[in-house]
Amino acid sequence: MALSSCISLSKQATPFNIDETGTHGTVEFPVAIYRDDITEDFVNWHWHAEIEIGHVEKGVILLECGNRKYILSEGDLFFINTNVLHSMRNHNPVNAAIFKSVIFDSSVISSNTESIYYKKYLHPIIHSASIRDFILKSDSIFFSKLDNIIKTVWEIINHEPEDYEISVRNELSDFFAVLNHMNLTESMLTHTVNPLLEERVQIILNYIHSNYSKNITLDDLANAANVSKSEVLRCFKSIINISPIKYLKNFRLQNAAYMLKSSTYSVQTIYELCGFDNNSYFSKSFKELFHCSPREYRNN
Fold it and tell me: DSSP 3-state assignment of 271?
């Protein structure tokens, strides 16, 4: 299986629907591995129906899941449950930051909801209201076992030996067996989860990512989520930590940067496709974010 970067890397992503469902692995074997260098890039806010597990290979990374923030150092493990809104970025830009991850659908272990595997091991985790995400450090008694599973799965998929699919399924089954012995709800999950807040942000982000080339107002975002304008602002402040209009502007600029590097479109065509009305405002905004003009960015 080809190793690739996460599709949500800010400077590498084409305009995409923020819901990544269906992008990992294949229908027959929905598992994929990633090695992402976020020294200068970052993984933008997104979610997917699959489970994500991984570890920090180098540096210090800020993982944000909804309104929860985690600082992961080299070697730390992370678990992100299905449909959890999350982003990742370098916490110390002076140094390199790289992480490896495995993203998989639970059907790899069992697609039969009546089976003992699903009822006993999968359902209690993937349908838990409190087990949304967590990190694991080396002082945990479960660290060594889970760390070995993640690294083994990653290497098996990377090299694809004979019958590797069976080996991966067995390892991921062991992963969930360990999770069910960890007493997660009491010993590790001390954060507050607000699924409704996260769901509203997901709706708003999805609207922005699908319509960023058009004129978007705060009223449009409120209507999309069926909430008031003040609730839109509250949701974004609680999770994204910037206003929705500023997020929209930055997202447009990130897509413009990608198009400058990957296409032969003129600067005027690019800023129009990305939702900007005039070159002066686009160039000024671009320079504020990327510290160079659009033409300099393309040339460099």
Answer: helix
